[in-house]
Specification:
N-(1-d-carboxylethyl)-l-norvaline Dehydrogenase, domain 2; 2 domains; homodimer; 8-stranded mixed beta sheet
Chain lengths: ~250, ~250
Amino acid sequence: MNIILLGSGRVATQLGQALHNAGASILQVYSPTQAHAAKLAAKLDCESISDVSQLRLDADLYILSVNDDALPTLSKQLSLTDRLVVHTSGSTPMSVLEHSSNKIGVLYPLQTFSHEKEVDFSVVPLIIESNNPESLNLLKDLAAKLSTKVLELDSAQRLILHVAAVFACNFSNHLYAISQALLASRQLDFDLIRPLIAETAAKVQLNLPSEVQTGPAIRKDELTIQKHLDSLKDQPQLQEIYRLLSQSIVNLR
Amino acid sequence: MNIILLGSGRVATQLGQALHNAGASILQVYSPTQAHAAKLAAKLDCESISDVSQLRLDADLYILSVNDDALPTLSKQLSLTDRLVVHTSGSTPMSVLEHSSNKIGVLYPLQTFSHEKEVDFSVVPLIIESNNPESLNLLKDLAAKLSTKVLELDSAQRLILHVAAVFACNFSNHLYAISQALLASRQLDFDLIRPLIAETAAKVQLNLPSEVQTGPAIRKDELTIQKHLDSLKDQPQLQEIYRLLSQSIVNLR
């Protein structure tokens, strides 16, 4: 399968490498910034371009892996009749691609990507969608070469999955960052809390989080909650987050 | 070293087993509920009691491992001159034990404990404190038999550490639980999000969370944020949490 990759960020890089490793042939990497396109193209052993007019028109699959807010504009620049065009966004409806081609779809990898750390794609859930059965089968086959977890969802379900991912991943990481800042304010090393973070995530690999909630809020330990709020008295936003999440723990109980 | 354990919850159970495995001699387990005391005492091969008047007075160390709000009352029931009495609470000042003995201290394991899953104590940070150098040394030696990470902190520092742990552990788990509820509302399995949770926690084992923040808030991707808020329109509390944490991500930047 011949693939053209539009984008050079974290998702494009990791997905491109996974496709390359799986034996797919990447023809071109496009990025409006030539240096970014060239960097990824070198890894994938292919041509780099920085102008959409240089796109080859004979690929089997065009993957748009750019920031969500760049998708509508990029999509309108393409006109690829009978070629499958997909995006990799969690929260963007497939329909954003309607300007690009009559054959459209989505290939959304549900994972958080670093620039540095290579991700094991074989365990990354790949969410697919298409506007026609033939393209859906093509995406199914391709996704199955990358991962053992392939799931077809419509755009509305995918959006909820993306919101769930923001809570579980982006917001959790922010709580780690708050923890980091609190420790730093007392010259305490973040290393102290790393085993706790690892164990908290490990616990829910086998259990449901609703069944393993611990801490003062679930115990309704008002004394401890008040001590914690007092200790945050100079940081009203942290107090507000503490109160809101504690209340939410009680409500979800 | 002869130890008496007062408490039979998760921390008492895991700490008792770790002490037992490390070769310490547990003389008695106390719990006001005899069945609970008996259950843990059986694991630790010792006597169980449910009345503090039955406490032996000849132990080297008395560990109070009960809920924070039960500590003041239990402490007042003890009168153990020249015997070291410690508690295992993150947020309770050492001084709560002043009624129990002239030698007091703290042995706080910074970890989240399950009833079922046994924890590898060797990587659990153990925070110690005492009101006299001799007892501090005793706690240092004991802690070093259980873990490679032993740290002396005063009660004020320990409180901040505990608050940081609530954000990183209890609140993160709650975000996982919100994620679980969102997925369940669309008949999606929590299994979908487990690799993401594992990777998010794995990332910060080598990086600082402030340096690996991802998601729409850090990108200031207002379009995606609005789509997410719209999708939560029937759940005002989740909207509020989403807004507050997104704002906090921007502020911490």
